[in-house]
UniProtKB/TrEMBL annotation:
Key word Chaperone present: yes
Organism: hydrothermal vent metagenome
J domain: residues covered: 85-140
Keywords: Chaperone
InterPro entries (UniProt xref): Apopto_cytoskel_mod, DnaJ_domain, J_dom_sf
Keyword Chaperone: yes
PROSITE patterns found in the cross-reference section: DNAJ_2
Pfam family, one: DnaJ
Protein name as catalogued: J domain-containing protein
Amino acid sequence: MCDHDGCDDKGEFPAPKSADSRDKWQFCAAHIAEFNRNWNYFEGLSKEEAFKRAQEEMRTAKGYASSGAYDMGETTYGKDRRRNDALTILDLDEDATTAEIKAAFRRMAKLYHPDTNLDDSDAAIKFQQVTTAYEVLTVK
């Protein structure tokens, strides 16, 4: 069942309760899309902490590009996990084409670009997330 208040639809899509927690919400398709639009990985962090964490995420993302996924039951690790996270950030389905990935990146990059959001400190952080997600999805 969907964890959104008042929704009785099937909750098929997991969403993190917080950036530092393994606990997940389970949402229906409509509410996972809403959650993804509003999700801020860096919520609750100061600008300095958010920037430091974003830099660390970008640095470690490069290491994942060359790792493989290991079959350890139903939990996903390695490339598959990074790909799934990147698809979630760009609000794409698992079977997204290269053209769809590029279009989603362009749309979100324009939306969150720091040059067009001078008064929004969260926009720069979201822009970094979008850029990292695109890199994860396009690295061969």
